[in-house]
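Lab notes, practical 5.
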Amino acid sequence: MQEVRVRQSNRQSNVGLILVFLVVITIIIASSVRSVSLHQKSKELSVTQAQLEQQLEEATNKSAELEEREKYMKTKKYIEDEAKNKLGLVNNDEILIKPKEKDD
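Output from the prediction step:
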């Protein structure tokens, strides 16, 4: 009778060990899958970060260009250039020379 109890307790111990082993394996597999997923997400975020940094640099450069243009537009030189280009005006001390038009 004691021998039967020992066999049953050994079987129960073996079944318990197998169940613990399966739980541990399941946890390891789940952790591995999650680790791979997180690694992939990290790569995607790195790419996004690089793109955003590039956009920030471009926006900063454009802002600097616009500031320079704004400074230029407040000068007398800008007003004179616009008057010459758009209205065809000249200063009193300047002589305007136009090329001859060709007759075809």
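Observations recorded by the TA: The first helix runs from residue 2 to 73. The CA atoms of residues 89 and 100 lie 19 Å apart.
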